[in-house]
Amino acid sequence: MELRVNLFTNETAGKIVKRMSAISQVLQQSALPQSTQLLVEIRASQINGCGFCTDMHTKDAAEAGETSVRLNLVASWRDATVFTDAERAALALAEEGTRLADAHGGVSDDTWAEVRKHYDEEQIGALVSVVALINAFNRLNVIARTPAGDYQPGMFG
């Protein structure tokens, strides 16, 4: 796969990515658990076929102490016993929020009720924002064909 445009060295794209990264920093400081944020980022990236983001977020999760068992089961979380009910609600929201075009109603009322059961208003705001932001990052990297595999945890600060 050949890189179409380098999102980090292109003047305009670089400015956009920098500002989106600033949003990520706000989310990292939120009350939503970092482990939940990473699971959501991994699942959305898998759905969107974003190798760069999948590489980044799985490595960041491992660096943060996430187990290989849980990382290996993110794609099949519904059949796995290693996720909490709160994480399952977040993963369901990530899937439905990523696949908006696949469902006429977008995020289902059942999924939203599960999210509300496990997260407070501030955490929900962060969770919705994580889903939206990772989808934007996925689209940038998939369109640009940003290659995966070379990411090292912490390399972007």
Automatic annotation (TrEMBL):
Signal peptide: none annotated. Keywords: Oxidoreductase, Peroxidase. Residues 26-96 form the Carboxymuconolactone decarboxylase-like domain. InterPro entries: AhpD-like, AhpD_core, CMD-like. Gene3D superfamilies: AhpD-like. It holds the Pfam family CMD. SUPFAM superfamilies: AhpD-like. This is AhpD family alkylhydroperoxidase. It comes from Actinocrispum wychmicini. The lineage of its organism: Bacteria, Bacillati, Actinomycetota, Actinomycetes, Pseudonocardiales.
